[in-house]
Amino acid sequence: MKDLGEAKVILGLEIRRDKALGTLKLSQGKYAAQVLEKFGMAKCNPIGTPLEVVLQLDKADESDDALPYREAVGNLMYLMVRTRPDLAFAIGKLSQFVSCYGKEHWAAIKRVLRYVKGSMVFNKNSSCVLQSYSDTDWAGEHETRRSTTGFSFIFGGAAVSWGSKLQQMGALSTMEAEYMALSEARKEAVWLNKLVQSVATQGLRTESSGGPINIKVDNSRCIDFSKKLRRAQAH
After folding, report:
1. Per-residue pLDDT tens digits for 172-227
2. Are the C-beta atoms of 66 and 26 separated by less than 8 Å?
């Protein structure tokens, strides 16, 4: 057995360390470029969003095997689970059609590839504060009318935890869907906050105080409902 030193690339995941600055950066830039080249999208025009806002897809009666749809979904999913949480919703939606896809599904995948092309580099800050965001698309799944929960946690300028999945039951209002998403984010926040505090005791520079994490939500009724519950619990 031979010691090859510190790892620099593992299964397409690039690792860059700077011990002087105390930073560790993960990237899949080369892998993303290879995926674009593989599906003939290396010279495509980039786009700012992975999916159309009101995109509604139906299962095709028969899959078009001439289209490399399954392979594209698999390649993008590997990118998503490693370093690209911004692809989670799009891939979660498009992966539902890997056994029944057609040209409209392939067009949607090509849009995701165009988005990857235009988002190879992100400018991030290095704030050591745990930030959280929660959101949902009320009744976005038009066949079952279920909503999709989405949340992300940012620390040191990078996403450290994220999730995007269908809710287990249908919500009767946007407030209800948003509150269910917030509940999932809150459970993750409790664990992450304890993790950050335990690491902070080992010398990590962090501005986190150990208090509650502010989870940002864009639904005023959900925020008001959460505040009422908090006041009720205080009494």
Report:
1. 999 999 999 999 999 999 988 888 887 766 655 555 555 678 899 999 999 998 88
2. no
Contacts of 47 (CB under 8 A, 6+ apart): 111, 114, 115, 117, 118
Tokens (6 digits) for 1? 């057995």
CA atoms of 62 and 43, how far apart (whole Å) = 30
**Which tokens is 157 given?**
């300028």
Same domain? 108 vs 149 = no
| Domain assignment present for 228 | yes
On whether residue 215 sits in a domain, the answer given is yes
Task: Find out whether 30 and 16 touch, Cβ atoms under 8 Å.
Answer: no
Which range of residues forms the domain containing residue 50? 9-118
Let me know if residue 4 belongs to a domain. no
Domain contains 123: no
Q: In this structure, which amino acid lies at residue 48?
A: G
**H/E element holding 112?**
helix 103-118
State whether 67 and 150 are in the same domain: no
The residue among 118, 147, 174 that closes a domain is 118
Tell me how far apart the alpha carbons of residues 47 and 113 are, in angstroms, rounded to a whole number: 9
Number of C-alpha atoms within 13 angstroms, CB side, residue 197? Answer: 11
Q: Tens digits of per-residue pLDDT, 23-59? A: 778 889 999 999 999 999 999 999 999 999 878 889 9
Nearest to 180 by CA among 132, 140, 138, 122: 138
Phi-psi region of 12 (alpha: psi -120 to 50; beta: other; left: phi over 0): left
Boundary-marking domain end, from 95, 118, 141:
118
DSSP strands (E only) in 36-145? 131-141
